[in-house]
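Let's practice the habit of predicting before peeking. Look at the sequence and jot down your guess about where helices and strands might fall. Then scroll down.
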Amino acid sequence: MSKIQVLDQITIDKIAAGEVIERPASVVKELAENAIDAGATAVTVEIKEGGITFMRIADNGIGIDKEDVRAAFLRHSTSKIRSAEDLAHISSLGFRGEALSSIAAVSQIELLTKTKEAEFGVRYKIAGGKEESLEDAGAPDGTTFLIRQLFYNTPARRKFLKTAMTEASHVGDLVTRLALSHPEVSFRFINNGQVKLHTSGNGNLKDVIYHIYGREIASNLIEVDFERKGIHITGYLGKPLISRGNRNFENYFVDGRYIKSSIISKAIEDGYKDFTMQHKYPFVVLYLDVDTEHVDVNVHPTKMDVRFNNQQEIYNTLFAAVDDGLHERELIPEVTLDDIKIPEEPKDCKSNFPEEPKESKKDLPKKSEAEHTEKLRTSLQSPQNEDEKLQYFMNEMKKRVYSYHEALHENKQETTPALSNTDSCKPQKNVSVQDSYKTQKDIPVQDSYKTQKNIPVQNSYKPQRNVQAQGSQIAESPNYTAKQVPAKKPQQLNFFEEKLLEPQAKAEHKIIGQVFDTYWLVEFHDNLYIIDQHAAHERVLYEQTLKGMKTREFTSQLISPPIILNLSMQEAELLRLYMDQFTRIGFEIEEFGQDSYAVRAVPDNLFSIAKKELLMEMIDSLSDEINRNAPSNLIDEKIASMSCKAAVKGNMRLSAAEVDTLITELLSLDNPYHCPHGRPTIIAMSRRELEKKFKRIV
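Done guessing? Here is the structure:
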């Protein structure tokens, strides 16, 4: 039998390094966090070959005194804490004193450091845990670490590293999180000589988000500032339209520390539950300021996991912050049309929109023969070198744009041209725009796109009556005389200034009609809203059922044969614990042998869909340790979700009165913007977007 013996220090350090140092990103994390603790305002991270062969982490912090350099590389040596009592009030990112000794045990380190008061800096070299040299050297204020050949003396660890590209992506992701966690620090990340990230360090979080994730995400953020019971939450929530297929965009920091927490992730995702579809995850950057007495960061050597002693309170507060932030605004996604190639118009069907002016003899003022000859000669003598060609091209384009806008301006002063009466664009007679949705059922779908004759055209000017144009008379209606609107001061478009789903806005809704027997078009101010009747009705039924279940008397419906549930010990305990809630809403469940139960009756509104899978889902939902609702409410939510199957389907024709009622019901909901499964109920398209596609604005 082997004798027990104490391991030598080098072996101990290598074992400890296995806990702290997993890959190059682990080294960067430990050293960058030390730089932040040292008060640095600028941190540079440079790697080569994924950090496997070379890493440089430089900062402008307070530096290390010469007499402390050797001690810094000993195990459990630190300047962050002094006694066990300090572990209950940790405010720094590092405190264990293991990082430098662990890194030195498995790599070759060169340290260059200088304090502000020192005249000279210090260069210190250590490899495989053994000191090589300590000498004075010229150095800037701060600390620079050069790490070479990671795991050079532990080949078994090195072979488990991924490719250089993969390791570099892990380092890049880590630097991104650090930059988000401390926007007041300027981070620069260099990979193989190329600068991949450089933040300003001006303390503006939104600037950092824009720099890292781009304009699309930075323009779809909702600011959060929420406090409850000593927990302060700040940062930004991404609007539901920028959800992703994984959790990589969930950024949250506890007291400035980047961590991973299933409780925090669950609270965020539950807050977005009604706004995102299944298997979609939100974008968030949130800071949680929590009293250090409630947080235990001494759980794992990497300090990526923390433990809360008030985890239910953390969950409730974070869920409330996300839920309040998302319900504060009208989250109707605005859609844009991709550029499409518009087919040429038939020659025998003339457009009623002004055409781009053409350089033809018919359109231009009469010119002398000499002028035409001169123009032809000039065009033939176009510039030959590239710069001159580009300038010539730009000048010609400017002329065309100016002439185009002049022609548009002239056309606006004239009467709107009448529609052509050719056979290829055969119109339909006497159809009013307001009543177009009422007469849709009388119009064949194939012909619904055809131009309609005598439709009053609503313009920004008052039409003239009895005007003859191209041999056809324009029908006029006094109802279509638009008011003269004073010019507005140019301002940034804000989609949320005027809400569609507000009671006072109801009078201004203009229902245009139904398309594809599924979607309803509603005009409101300068936006076109498209409502999915199925998703909207699902949301109405869900919330109405949920509210009704709190007050109604439940009746049971017997089922034969009964549903037999074979449960595990944990599931059986949950069912016994919440049996009263199941009985209250109409279930009749009795024991049927060891850990088996027979369901003999179900609520009357679930009779057609009550299956074993539904009941198991309900029990599974009760097994989570952390939930935002009482168990009875979780059961109610599941039943309400199932009742959505009764919603009106797509391809079902509704009357205008029915849609008006549906919109009225949407007004009363807590979340009218998404169905219970996360799909949007309404999307919007701005008038500006339409005008851009029809080239009315350039």
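How did you do? The chain is about 30% helix and 20% strand.
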